[in-house]
Amino acid sequence: MTGANGVNGVKAPKPTFPSEAATREYAASLDKADPLRALRDEFIIPSKANLASKKLAKPGLSSEPSIYFCGNSLGIQPKATAKYMEAQLDTWASIGVCGHFTNIEDSPLSEWQTLSEQASASMCKIVGASPEEVAAMGTLTMNLHLLLASFYKPTETKKKILMDWKAFPSDHYAIESHIAWHGFDAKENMVLIGPDEGTYEISTEKILSYIDKHADDAAVLLLPGIQYYTGQLFDIPTITKYAQDRGLTVGWDLAHAYGNVEIKLHDWNVDFAAWCTYKYGNAGPGAMGGLFVHERHGKVDYSEGEDSPKFRHRLTGWYGGDRSVRFKMDNKFKPIPGANGYVISNPSVIDLTTLCAALSVFDKTSMTQLRQKSFKLTAYLEYLLLKDSTDADRQFTIITPSDPHARGAQLSVLLKPGLLHNVAQKLQDAGIICDKREPDVVRVAPVPLYNTFEEVFTFVEVFKSALSQ
């Protein structure tokens, strides 16, 4: 099976649909032919009854599932989570501190000292890296802070950071604080790259022009892999190489790209990246995040002796030190080569457990397969939304790029003013969960792991009915 990038890097064409595609029967036929359809059974889908009750209730209050198109905000719970949590709690209860170096029989989890490496071994396949280049740790914003502390090295002449004009607030705050930390004015040194007036997509050419303009005064380029508001997927390899060739260090926030699109951080020579795992990654609210440091930045040089290792400066902590000497307690920091040398402290085992549970589902497929389904699933959503209408009579605009290679699962639908409340209420009444952004945007994200083509069909029916009212 080939992914959305086709064979040998040749991009697959945009999916097309026959005249009978706008029927429930056709949608059901796509689901029947879906090779990934069994993955839906790996998840607990919130029921309509539970959502309508607005009370805490046990899963399965009703057998009728909701249509959950909100994985771009919070993914749903894998069935494996309860099994993994039970195994972890049994380990803690039965052997206590010994769980650091051993585990109970038949547990799907390794001992606590190596559990983060178990997570990295699976997570690295999602972001296109080696296990040594990925660390499971912290949360997204914390990891961005740690990475900026290592990679943002401003000088009097090169101190600006190029960023997205509508960066998620946590990114904006983190960048702002690092510039100020070095004693520079944040307003003067945060360069915001936005779309042209009246548009939403930021062209690659415009980003490259900003890089050219600030090649002499910028130190870092930090962009989102996918823009959270519009759903635009940036051309990561092209932008990365162009910026690095002009002397910039390049980092990516992959919060909306992780588990959503195919990424090849190592091959694309990205300097650093960070992501959360609770959106398309399904690891749970506030789940442990991940970071990437390219292997060239994670090397440890012992040419001057074991006691004088040379390595890229970072904020250091005990758990970034090599396990072979970690418990000598001699305060001689010997970093683990690679991304794990950036780990600060003992990671939460409970957080690692939910992460490993979610990753166990990803281990049953590949990002190539998921992207191929997502490519068609979102194209089908777009086709049904636009069918039988024109720009002139439509009460909404899709502000996500129409090129399927320039987006992930999400479509951001901009409604005409005054419609959002009614549409959102009608969707909720029908047991359809998707994200709304004031004042007028509905973000719809059919996730290939657990969403279906028939759910897409139903959503569009309800959505258009709400608009007609």
Automatic annotation (TrEMBL):
Its EC number is 3.7.1.3. The keyword Cytoplasm applies. GO terms for molecular function: kynureninase activity; pyridoxal phosphate binding. Residues 117-294 form the Aminotransferase class V domain. It is an enzyme of class 3 (hydrolase). GO terms for cellular component: cytoplasm. It catalyses: L-kynurenine + H2O = anthranilate + L-alanine + H(+); 3-hydroxy-L-kynurenine + H2O = 3-hydroxyanthranilate + L-alanine + H(+). Pyridoxal 5'-phosphate binds at residues 140-141, 168-171, 253, 256, 278, 318, 346. PANTHER family: KYNURENINASE, KYNURENINASE 2. Catalyzes the cleavage of L-kynurenine (L-Kyn) and L-3-hydroxykynurenine (L-3OHKyn) into anthranilic acid (AA) and 3-hydroxyanthranilic acid (3-OHAA), respectively. Belongs to the kynureninase family. This is Kynureninase.
